[in-house]
Amino acid sequence: MKYAIVLLCLCSLVLAHDTWVQTNTNFVRVGDAVYIDLMLGNHGNEHRDFKLAGKVDPATVTLDVIDPAGAKTDLKPSLTDQGMGAKEGYHSARFVAGKVGLYTIVQTSDRVVNYAPTRSIKSAKAFFVATTSLDKPPSDNPGFDKVYGHAFEIVPLTNPVTPMGTGERIKLKVLYNGQPLAGSRVSFLPKGVTLKEGLDERYERDTDSDGVVQFDLNDANLYLIVAHHADDGAGEGYTSTKYSATLTLWVPAVCPCCGE
């Protein structure tokens, strides 16, 4: 009985983990490579950290790069395992940008976990820009606000790459089944920062009646933006549904396109 309880607790933790995607940079020259990491974790401190916990099974997710023209590249065939053990580390893929403009990385998963029994629906996004010159990249890089129709989705309303730097304000919308979700808690997690227990007003906001939230970016860092939702939606093999959406954001000390 003891072992069954322990197994149930461990399974619940795995279900509770979020996924996110992150890049080694948010700017490259056309023809250069970006490394895209597929991560699983941040269960610590109520889903409010960068700590890894296990490793995503690529067979259970979608992972695509959308180029500036809307063409999709499946990254799963190029993923390499960056961990020593089956549950350690993460997967990473090398992608060469061939066009000028903004690229969106999109990851999704939708699984029924029978032992919970819960349906787990996740989405994740990250962005980077390819340019002919890193010295003077263009500030107009459209496509960041595209809605991909995920069951639970974070959509940027301001460009997450250009212009971007400390002092900028990021504005986002949280969508649930395509509709704005009011009162959704959104955490803006700077890498290496530990949030206070409960609501941390420095880094957390609730969406307004239009599902919109905004945050002033005062620190140069990599941010993990996280939102969660749950409902009693039931179906074959599950009695409830849990959702998570993430977005990663590079904030440089100096804006790459305006120099401020």
Rounded mean pLDDT is 90
Please give the number of β-strands.
17
What overall geometry do the principal axes of the alpha carbons give?
A: globular
CATH topology: Immunoglobulin-like
CATH superfamily: Macroglobulin (MG2) domain
CATH architecture: Sandwich
In total, the number of domains comes to 1
The helix-strand sequence is HEEEHEEEEEEEEEEEEEE
Rg (C-alpha, Å): 18 Å
| Strand residue content | 35-45%
Distance between the termini: 61 Å
Structural category is mainly beta
Low-confidence stretches: 1-15
Structure commentary:
The protein is mostly beta strands and about 260 residues long. The chain has a single domain, classed as Sandwich (Immunoglobulin-like), CATH 2.60.40.1930. It has 2 helices and 17 strands. Strands 2, 4, 5, 8, 9, 13, 14, 16 and 17 form a 9-stranded mixed beta sheet that branches. The radius of gyration is 18 Å and the shape is globular. Mean pLDDT is about 90; it is low at about 1-15.
Topology, pairings included?
Blueprint: H1 2-16, E1 18-23, E2 27-29, E3 33-41, H2 44-47, E4 61-66, E5 72-74, E6 80-81, E7 91-96, E8 101-113, E9 118-131, E10 152-156, E11 168-176, E12 179-180, E13 185-190, E14 204-206, E15 212-217, E16 221-231, E17 240-251
Parallel strand pairs: 2-9, 9-17
Antiparallel strand pairs: 1-3, 3-7, 4-5, 4-8, 6-7, 8-9, 10-11, 11-12, 11-15, 13-14, 13-16, 16-17
Write a brief structural summary.
The protein has about 260 residues and is mainly beta. It has helices at about 1-15, 45, and strands at about 20-25, 25-30, 35-40, 60-65, 70-75, 80, 90-95, 100-115, 120-130, 150-155, 170-175, 180, 185-190, 205, 210-215, 220-230, 240-250.
